[in-house]
Amino acid sequence: MTKCSNCKSENVIKRAKRKTLNRGLIQRYYCKDCKKRFTLNDGFYRMRNSPEKITQSLHLYFSGTSLRKTQEHLGIFHSHNASHMSVLRWIRKYSKMVSNLTDNLELNVGNELMADEMEYKTKGKQSWFVDVMDTKTRFIVSSDFMYSRTIDNLVNVLKVAKKKTENQVDVITTDGLKGYPRVLRKTFGLNKLDAKSRIQHNIVIASERGFNHKIERLHNSIRERTKIMRQFGALESARLIMKGYEIYYNFCRKHMATNKYPYELATDLKLGKNKWLDLILLSSN
Fold first, then answer.
1. Could you tell me which of 119, 173, 179 has the C-alpha nearest to residue 154?
2. pLDDT of 209 above 60
3. Can you name the CATH fold of 112-233?
4. Any alpha helices (H) in 166-234, and if so which ranges?
5. Average pLDDT of span 264-270
6. Which of 265, 260, 263, 239 is nearest to 250 (CA)?
7. What contacts 267, CB < 8 A, 6 or more positions away?
8. What pLDDT is recorded for position 189?
9. Which of 32, 143, 158, 244 could be disulfide-bonded to 95 (CB atoms 3.0-4.6 Å)?
């Protein structure tokens, strides 16, 4: 049921349509209670470009196309072109918006999570992307971008993973970073002195037992996207871009091993062909 955006009343009627240059006709509504006209916020409120164009640019960018090449592509297929900085603003805006939806979905995962880190540069400083992945569905459960791998920073990432997976996980697999046992004690209640502890910490050291192949495959996919970047410009921008890639990986990219999108295995969400569009519409409700 349509509600007034001003007073939340349901006593509304349709009142003509507003013509826009690039978004076509937009339905207007009139509230009989507060006597005001309004248009629905579908996630693209007051945007000067069409939803199709914006979501197309998001998909192109996270598929591996640079900002300027994305702009060049839009200029070929759309009469009204946008600057490469507009594309970057869309990425930041909709990564943040959609994450409000995706970060609160109920997950159905397997019994093992893998956690690992990737090193980057942000304004010339060392920085890290830390992520936690479910090995069964290949769903990225939580992630963050940070300047240093402190215990508190790692705890924040693992706390999110714990909250989203509840009691479904029995094994946490990590590399040999010495801080992980302490992090897992603070998050999953791991007690290394208790042999009957429900959570088991599986440590894989590359020089001794090989790699954590599943999460390393994820990192190879991320590197395919970020290899064209020399470095990130700012920490908050890097966080939003990497959050956008997390959304793209979970919802818009079919995994080769499972032949399914990770969200199809981990959630009950139903999305159409243009998954970015559906996620934005769901986020705006």
1. 179
2. no
3. Nucleotidyltransferase; domain 5 (3.30.420)
4. 180-187, 206-209, 213-226
5. 96
6. 263
7. 105, 106, 107, 108, 139
8. 83
9. 244
